[in-house]
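Let us work through a complete example step by step.
Step 1: write down the sequence.
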Amino acid sequence: RHLCWMAFLFASLRLSASFSRRSNLIPRTATAAANLLTTATAAAPKTCSSTQLFSTMTANPLLQDWSSQPFNLPPFGEIKTEDYEPALKEAMVAHLEDLQAIVDSTEEPTFDSVIKAYDQSGGLLDKVQGVFSNMCSSLNTEELQKVQTDMSAVLSKHSSKAYTLPGLFAKIDQVYQTRLETGLNSEQIRLVERVHMDFVRQGAELSPEAQEKLSQIKATLAELRTKFMQNVLKDESTYELVVTKDDLDDCPDSLIEAAKQAAVEREKGEDDYVITLSRSLVEPFLVFCKNRDLRKQAFEAWTQRGQLDESRDNVPIAQEMLKLRQQQAQLYGYKSYAEFQCVDRMAKKPENVMKLLEDVWERAKVSADKEREELETYVKESGLDLPGGIEPWDWRFVAEKVRISKYSFDESLLKPYLSLESVREAMFAVSGNLFGLQYKPRPDIGMYHPDVDAYEVRRKTDDKLVSIFVHDNFSRQFKSSGAWMSEYRSQTRNLKATDDEIEGVPIVSNNNNLAKASGTTLLSHDDATTMFHEFGHAHHGMLSDATYSRLASTNVLTDFVELPSQLMEHWFDERQVLKQFARHFETGEIVPDELLDKLKAAQSFNQGFGTIEYTICALLDMAMHQIDNYDDFDIIEFEKKELERLGMPQGIVMRHRPPHFLHLFASEMYAAGYYVYLWAEVLDADAYAAFEEKGDIFDPETAEKARKYIYSAGNTEAPDELFRQFRGRDPDISFMLKKKGLV
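Step 2: predict the structure and record it as tokens.
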């Protein structure tokens, strides 16, 4: 379940080639991440300077005052595709005016006159881009894709111009040099240091010639990221495997209904059913479909995304991006792009990443080989007809047979207890028990699609408004695949005296891609876990308690950002939670203990397969980005040789092959950084053990520490120090290895 998309993403992202001071999209797969990074530039607090007030007089709803909207939400019903480009261009002008005002100020450079003002800058651009970036992931129509393509290089060049504005970095550097001598508090010192590092990593200390070259590299990369992502989106939205009801014999009713719904949406024949490349359709199809030839067709299409049409071949795009990233790293004096990326992460060096990955890889290979032996034994004893042995399109199918045979656990029997409504109720209850939050539905608020729900999030103790939560759960045309968290507005207390306080209250969104049923939508165990995962990211945004926008919410180091999300997953698997909320959607019956016993016994099964699927992607990512010369580089041949060198277990393939690896090529956040899910898994397994050691999964004291040091602190302190304050020591890898069954 390493999908934070990156689709991702995906994905509200972070500082990379874009001019963003906070992350507003955390993907579980890569498309969402991509959309955000290709459009992100100046993401600052959502406030507008006096020079921007003229915008309220225009007819463009993106530039108008939103105070008439509930909670100053965007006026979704009024915004048209043609509004984005002029609004973005006007907002970029206003942003540069904000920055120029800092440069032109005759005041002695101080924290308030430079750093605080910088943190407040770009409010109009942030406001417009908050909508644009989210729509490029959640409702990216063909018309909007054109705007996205046209604006990607423009926004990137604006980013470069903002970071190299003459006189700005000199003032920032002056405050930085005296930061320890001017009576600043620890959060202010942290902000000065982070802003200074942002500028350095965006080329502020380079020569003018190098800055110009970097600007061109980043603009080209922005265009290539957009093209890469849109090619994958086109492959996913156009491919369809038309099958019959007989082809779906023995498949769960929920899969059959979803396939019929997909056929209806695509206006197929009355007797047709459609399997798309949506993960919520294709994965269960590979698990349950008896027809091996159809499984092979679906699997090959799924693994060939980004190569399904010669006109949309992502291979040359990915290769060009690797070359440009290497040039970018060399401008900064680094040997490889992996070195450049790791410097501003907890890992610090690629060698530290590889040590973790290789340790887990070798253990996972042993586990996967044992699992394959189990599968082969079942095939032989059951007489299952698989000429040539177990192929990649067979593994999930046979593994499900073994799971049922060995553990008597049939996941299709669990799904009726996991309706979307019951899982959402469980999420809200866990949030309430841990952090004292309550969720009030607001069906009266107009959103961008009828399937999208909005909630007020308030504290139980005093009814204080904490956040607005937007829940967009269903797969649809023009929506990126995967699951992700994003923000339309981030938490901040750094507001101007004239600003409405509501501008400091975050608007947080979770996107999923569930296959919508005509009646009750039922979830797989993985679907439900993904919802909890994204809800963990949402809490990182909703519970944020930072003074400054740059340090708020998910704007943390990349290998820390998955801790809040992966930690939240643990509560879904707790019997205490399932026995209260997992109810049969028809009868209301609570899930039986016998079924939960079987679920628990089966959970360690196939962990080797899952770990191999993920870890090989992280290893290939680091290997590709540690190359220092890409002359005559062939990414497909490199993939083949690396899998051979690493001893890839037979019958398993990469979860994300290079031509559709959106985490890497539709964003910068996870490039040379896909390892972060495993890194964070070390942290989350250790962190959850703190609750288990108390004997109470909702222990108030531990929950308060989790809120303070994991969910609310943002980037106000270094992540390794935050973990030590929560746990009282450095993280222990043994909890993760035990969780994965690798010890």
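Step 3: interpret the result. Residues 5-57 have pLDDT under 50 and may be disordered.
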